[in-house]
Amino acid sequence: MALHHGCGSLCKVSNIVGSTSLLVGSTRLLHLPKSYPIHCNMVSPSSTFGLGPLKLHNKGFRLRSCRVKREDKNQTTDVESVSVDEDTLKIDLDTAIQEENYMEAARIRDILKELQEDSRSSVLSANTRFYQAFRNGDLAAMQSLWSKTGKPCCVHPGAKGITGYDDVVESWEVVWMNYEFPLLIELKDVEVHVRGEVGYVTCMEFVKTKGSSSWGAQFVSNVFEKIDGEWFICIHHASPVDI
């Protein structure tokens, strides 16, 4: 059975799903609660996936994996165009103000403003790449977008959180098993915020699958962390909304 993300009249099948891991070449068996529904049309808050997170077990059961496209090596990725440390600039700004060097303070303030705008643009660009991978069922791109440090977390609509890089990536493979691509995805009320090395995007996400007449709606929070000058997603939380 498959998790779904975004829409769905509900139907139930076996709670055992086999998928070939694209990360390490092994075959894994996914045990999902029997109440997990397949994603078809539209999800409401009362239509939940189940009560527990994905459990992944290395077994010999094999099922077709989802459609995967190669990552485009020629695709440009936005990195920070200003490599100045923001905390250092804030210290320099405080020092300039204390020394009543207001011309220097104004100059530093302008640099900080430009840096913050660049950071907001870079976070928004990372969010756009996330939705391009989601729209096209591009697992290779999705793998490259998630942070491999710490314990990234993904909350699909109505489900508990899935933590850890491998499990998060494999959850997208399960989500996409029964989809035809590309999906129709629209975002509204997009807001971007950056605080140092962490940025987040909130938005309304609308998803429509091929053959469906209705849209699934989620309120989404995507959190990104800056690692070696690039922004990686570390939290994706999608909460279903009635429309």
Describe the structure.
This protein has 243 residues and is an alpha+beta fold. 27% of the residues lie in helices and 27% in strands. It is built from four helices and nine strands, in the order E-E-E-H-H-H-E-E-H-E-E-E-E. The protein has helices at residues 86-98, 102-136, 139-145, 165-175; strands at residues 16-20, 27-31, 55-58, 153-155, 162-163, 184-195, 198-208, 216-227, 230-240. It has a six-stranded mixed sheet with strand order 5-4-9-8-7-6. Strands 1-2-3 form a three-stranded antiparallel sheet, covered by helices on one side. Helix 2 (102-136) runs antiparallel to helix 3 (139-145). The chain starts with 15 loop residues before the first strand and ends with a strand. Mean pLDDT is 75; it is low at 8-84.
Order of helical and strand elements: EEEHHHEEHEEEE
What fraction of the residues are assigned to beta strands by DSSP?
25-35%
Helix run count: 4
Rg for CA atoms? 21 Å
Q: Order of strands across the widest beta sheet? A: 5-4-9-8-7-6
Q: Based on Cα principal axes, name the global outline.
A: elongated
Helix content: 25-40%
Distance from N terminus to C terminus (CA atoms, Å) equals: 26 Å
Total strand segments: 9
Structural category is: alpha+beta
Mean pLDDT over the residues: 75
Gist?
With about 240 residues, the protein is an alpha+beta fold. Helix content is about 25%, strand content about 25%. The radius of gyration is 21 Å and the shape is elongated.
